[in-house]
Design a protein that fits this description.
Radius of gyration: 33 Å
Strand content: 15-25%
Shape: flat
Largest sheet: 8 strands, mixed
Number of helices: 28
Number of strands: 39
Length: 967
């Protein structure tokens, strides 16, 4: 593209966006090569819209206008265009002005802005998306305010500015409304942006899942093959819309195939087509996409393989596929996809290769693997569970798990979201969306490729450096139920979709096998639940005995959940009756329906017909949706156990750390619904209990999230954010090293001190006389320690000598240190005043390019370094986050008086974590902070060592204007 010689074309301003109606468009800078496009665009704008733009009749653009609107310096004069199919549908332009409204250059920080949207595309959210992008461009170029002159009758444009969420002023001058917008993002503008993003992306998925018509491109002329299979599945599912078979090789006189209209191209179809399923070889896909795009198809499901999973050439082919589809406003499932399913009665869409379509139900399923998708569909079907929707995204070059979460968030037919992910393209966004969705409905995730160190073939995503255990902790912080296997994914989904959430961890166990009851009891203890002693009904128990015992357990205010265990009933002849399973299942369902409000799971061993009887309610409910309740946290059913009551049996263990400050019971959402009558059945006690434990932990998270934590205001009193910013700018300099720079000890202390984090100073002690001088300056007692990297924090190797009370002890320690470990030049010894005795801890914060800022905490030394006993939270952390973080590590009892020791000052530790979180959140240039050791005493704490690293701030995709990812 031609550009002015003094400024390069800013290709990083290019972006694909999803509009309000779910279609896509491209935003890019206008160049000198766009003159014809601009003229053509302007000719399609109505006279009224032209009048609103220029405040006068303006039927056509002059050559001077065209030159002015296509020549920009990309600093003081910038124009952006929105394109669909390569043609303009909207433009925006800003011109930097001074205080008198005249053209200006920097440092003037105000610009005049004007929009023009083609009438046919008004109402699609085009101007709102353009405002986000032109505002981001302006901020990048040092512009802080936009001024706009709008005619009072131009209500649509006034609303765009008013609803943007920016701080603004309005005045009426010379017959027009003058609006001034402060471009600094606000909480309101970010909320507006994310709300629009959610609605647009959800609508784009809805368009894919609820088409009025489907064309299968690549339908075979003879039975068999991918295309013909999809066509058959569409018809057998009873799709309510129109279906077309398309194949360029069809005979010209062929009019129908399998009872549906047949065409040689999509263009030949006389009616609109909403969704096209592409089942053609990869080399033919570009032609098929162009055919669909020209016909106005809204979305594509690309089953074809041969893309990024096949190597570099395939990756480039995949990128071109996305570019081509988005240029026509289409979104893509795939390529290398397995297909999509929507069981809603009004749609009944099965545009997939699934050999066994699922029943209708309340579970949404997303998978990035076709093979795993088949396994999950089969497993759910066998166990009587139904789905609301199924998406197998393959290489997920466009539509991803984030988009599906946006859709499920407000989908009334989905109560539980199950996802199998092999990669997460935008972890920050995924965590944000998962947290919001999990506040309404469970989100269960199993992550493949956890330890491979790279993305699976076909998945071009940012590489994260943080360990999988950290990823798991961050997902749980967001309310995501993270499981390890696809079997656990199904197990958890079954319970969450059919049972109310438990009010607590107290579990009653009853059944006709003492051994199976004990296995269940042990499994409960392993998962951190509080089981009551199992109630053995003996092997002679009848279904009515089960009814009585289950009714009693569900009515007990000291029980939050029930696990029923069952083995086949053996008669006097030594045989089992196949009818027993059905009879027991019916009784259990009737009992749960009559005493609702608490979850029940069944563990059975080879009881024929039991699982089917327990699932019969949902299996027969293919009609109206809503047979299963939305999982909600049941209200606490009883006051705490009296102090003199005997405790429930528990496994012997070390004293547990006190729990984090209790959250009030969840008040939002409906009360626990009546049970659906369906009860999940499991072939092993461990599987049932693990699913129940996940439900318990999720219910606790839901209750806590109803009143989220906060950052205490007192932190502001000791924080000088502007001074820290100035110091960071000075330390980085005008040309910062992209790899970052470590700060020296003095700069580190100064920076941390500006956030109320004092670091105890150290003085160099290369020789014994230097050590004595340092000790006299700091005051006895002192510590002598090495700062050599291989000996730092290694008191076990003798690199740290503590409680040196006088000069003689200090000189002796210095001599022993240098004689046994090396010379002063190698050891770099320092002297530091002793801190009050306490527990040594470590606090870290680091910026991961994919996941964002992560705050970590653990005990210093072996617990964190050898055992990996660290707790992680996303930044910014709240008071509740850090309180839970401290208490979640396995070695936490050492902070709370283990074995009679004095508890340490955990409130001071919580405040320190909050200050570190605030520091890295305020200043993205701080890419890592390590405080080690932090000695937490009975009163107060002392930071003895600190390291800070600065680097140019990484890009924050989650804070910029809305855009689709490009991999």
């Amino acid at each position: 593209m031609e550009t002015p010689p003094d400024h390069a074309y800013p290709d990083h301003w290019e972006a694909d966006v999803v509009l309000r109606d779910g279609g896509t468009a491209r935003i890019r800078p206008i160049t000198t090569a766009d003159a014809e496009r601009l003229v053509s665009f302007y000719e399609q704008v109505s006279d009224e819209s032209k009048y609103y733009r220029f405040f006068a009749p303006y039927p056509r653009l002059s050559d001077r206008d065209v030159h002015r609107f296509t020549h920009h310096d990309y600093v003081d004069r910038v124009g952006l265009a929105v394109t669909v199919g390569g043609e303009f549908i909207a433009t925006v332009r800003y011109d930097r002005i001074d205080e008198r409204g005249l053209p200006a250059t920097a440092p003037a920080d105000e610009a005049e802005v004007a929009f023009l949207v083609q009438d046919a595309h008004q109402g699609r959210g085009v101007a709102s998306a353009l405002l986000e992008h032109i505002a981001a461009v302006a901020r990048e170029r040092g512009i802080r305010r936009f001024a706009a002159e709008v005619l009072p009758a131009n209500n649509k444009m006034i609303k765009v500015f008013r609803d943007a969420g920016y701080t603004q002023k309005r005045s009426f001058e010379d017959g027009s409304v003058r609006l001034t917008l402060d471009l600094e993002p606000t909480a309101e503008s970010l909320a507006v942006q994310r709300g629009r993003e959610q609605r647009a992306e959800a609508h784009s998925v809805q368009r894919l899942l609820t088409p009025g018509s489907v064309a299968v491109v690549g339908t075979g002329r003879v039975p068999g093959g991918v295309g013909r299979t999809v066509l058959r599945n569409l018809l057998e599912a009873g799709f309510t819309g129109r279906v077309y078979a398309v194949n360029h090789a069809f005979a010209e006189d062929l009019r129908a195939l399998d009872g549906v209209p047949a065409f040689r191209s999509v263009a030949a179809i006389g009616d609109p087509v909403d969704l096209a399923v592409l089942a053609v070889p990869a080399r033919q896909v570009p032609e098929a996409v162009a055919d669909c795009g020209r016909h106005g198809v809204r979305g594509l499901v690309v089953l074809s393989a041969g893309y990024a999973e096949s190597g570099p050439e395939g990756l480039e082919r995949q990128r071109e596929l996305v570019r081509q589809a988005r240029s026509y406003g289409m979104r893509i499932i795939g390529p290398n996809a397995f297909g999509i399913i929507n069981t809603a009665e009004a749609v009944r869409l099965n545009a997939s290769l699934a050999p066994e379509p699922p029943d209708r139900g309340r579970i949404g399923l997303f998978t990035q693997s076709g093979a795993i998708g088949i396994a999950l569909l089969s497993g759910l079907y066998r166990r009587g569970a139904g789905l609301s929707s199924f998406i197998s995204a393959g290489n997920r070059a466009d539509v991803s798990g984030n988009d599906i979460l946006q859709y499920w968030y407000e989908d009334p037919d989905t109560d539980v979201a199950l996802l199998y992910l092999e990669s997460i393209g935008n972890p920050r966004k995924f965590t944000r969306l998962a947290r919001r969705t999990a506040a309404l409905k469970p989100v269960v995730v199993v992550k493949g490729a956890r330890h491979s160190g790279s993305a699976p073939p076909g998945h071009a995503v940012p590489v994260t450096r943080i360990p999988d255990a950290t990823v798991s902790a961050l997902l749980r912080q967001a309310g995501v139920i993270r499981v390890d296997t696809v079997t656990e994914l199904v197990d958890a989904g079954l319970l969450l979709a059919s049972q109310p959430l438990p009010a607590g961890p107290r579990v009653a166990i009853l059944g006709n096998s003492e051994s199976l009851g004990l296995l269940t009891y042990d499994a409960c203890l392993t998962e951190g639940l509080r089981p009551s002693p199992p109630r053995d009904l003996t092997t002679a128990a009848t279904p009515e005995d089960f009814r009585a015992a289950l009714t009693l357990a569900l009515s007990d205010p000291a029980v939050d959940a029930v696990v029923v265990t069952a083995i086949p009933h053996v008669g006097e002849t030594g045989t089992t009756d196949p009818a027993d399973g059905g009879a027991l299942g019916t009784v259990l369902r009737e009992t749960v329906t009559s005493v609702p409000g608490k979850p029940v799971a069944v563990v059975h061993v080879e009881i024929e017909g039991l699982a089917e009887a327990l699932a019969v309610v949902e299996r027969s409910a293919r009609g109206p949706a809503g047979s299963a309740p939305a999982p909600t946290a049941a209200p606490p059913s009883a006051p705490p156990r009296p102090a003199d009551a005997p405790p429930a049996p528990t496994a012997p263990s070390a004293p547990a750390a006190p729990s984090a400050p209790a959250a009030p019971p969840a008040s939002a959402g409906p009360p626990a619904p009546a049970a659906s009558g369906r009860i999940p059945a499991y072939p092993a006690a461990e599987r049932a209990v693990r699913a129940l434990a996940e439900a318990v932990r999720y219910a606790q998270w839901r209750r806590q999230s109803a009143e989220p934590g906060k950052v205490p205001e007192y932190l502001d009193d000791a924080i000088d954010e502007s001074a820290a910013a100035a110091l960071i700018a000075r330390l980085l300099g005008d040309a910062p090293d992209p790899h970052g720079v470590p700060l020296g000890a003095a700069d580190t202390r100064e920076l941390l001190g500006l956030y109320g984090i004092p670091v105890r100073p150290t003085l160099p002690a290369p020789g014994p006389d230097d050590a004595v001088a340092a000790a006299n300056r700091l005051g006895y007692p002192v510590a002598l320690k090495t700062t050599a990297p291989h000996l730092r924090h290694r008191s076990d190797l003798g690199g740290v000598r503590l409680d040196l009370a006088d000069e003689a002890q200090l000189r002796l320690a210095h001599r022993e240190l240098t004689e046994s470990l090396g010379g002063p030049a190698e050891l770099r010894p320092v002297v530091q005043a002793m801190a009050p005795r306490g527990v040594d801890t470590v606090v870290r914060a680091a910026i991961d390019a994919a996941a964002g800022a992560v705050l970590s905490f653990g005990l210093a030394g072996a617990p964190s370094e050898l055992l990996g006993d660290l707790a992680h939270r996303l930044v910014p952390a709240t008071d509740r986050d850090v309180a839970e973080q401290i208490r979640s590590i396995r070695s936490a009892p050492l902070l709370f008086g283990w074995r009679g020791s004095t508890p340490v000052d955990t409130p001071a530790l919580e405040e320190l974590l909050l200050r570190v979180s605030r520091l890295v959140d305020d200043h993205p240039e701080i890419v890592s902070v390590t405080l080690e050791p932090v000695v937490v005493a009975t009163h107060g704490l002392t930071v003895l060592g600190a390291n800070v690293r600065l680097a140019p701030p990484p890009a924050r995709d989650d804070l910029g204007p809305r855009s689709l990812p490009s991999y």
